[in-house]
Every structure is written in structure tokens, then in C-alpha cells.
Sequence to fold (83 residues):
Amino acid sequence: MPYCFKCNRKIERGQGVRKEVYTGHHKSAGFSGNRPWAGKRKYYAMRIVCNDCAKPSTSESLFTALTVMFLLFLLWCFRGWVC
Ligand SMILES: [Zn+2]
Fold:
């Protein structure tokens, strides 16, 4: 039985969602010819997460909605002052 990568919950058969998750990065540097180079490699891996973790959390989307509303409000106020 697989477990959720994020919340460690047990995933029932056919319930999990396969997702590409960021697992870390690897920095490397060196010389090619006589020019130094530095690179950063990102690693992603396929992990299984439960349905709850697969969908964006409600608090997160609520926060985004509030931010957008706040910005629109600011824009509206600013327009009021200018015109
Ligand atoms: Zn989960």
C-alpha cells in the first residue's frame, strides 16, 4: 500500500495521484577550457500523493483571491485620486 509523499497518509488502491515533485538541486562548478562555469541542476521525481494533497489547498486559493481583490481595490482607489 503506497503512502502519500506529502502527508504520509495511506492511499487506497486507485486513489492516489502521481505527481512530479521537486526533490532538490545539485550545484556544480568547474572549468571548461579556461572559462569557469557554474550550474544548478534541479531534480524532480515522480511521487504518489493523496487526492487532498494533489489539489491546491483551499486556504491557498482563498489567499490568492484576497490578494487579487486587494490589488484591484488599490487600483480603484488610485484611479479615484488621479481622475
Ligand atoms: Zn496527502
User: Anything to note?
Assistant: The two ends are 63 Å apart (CA to CA). Residues 4, 6-7, 9, 49-50, 52-53 surround zinc ion (CB under 6 Å). Strands lie at 17-32, 35-49.
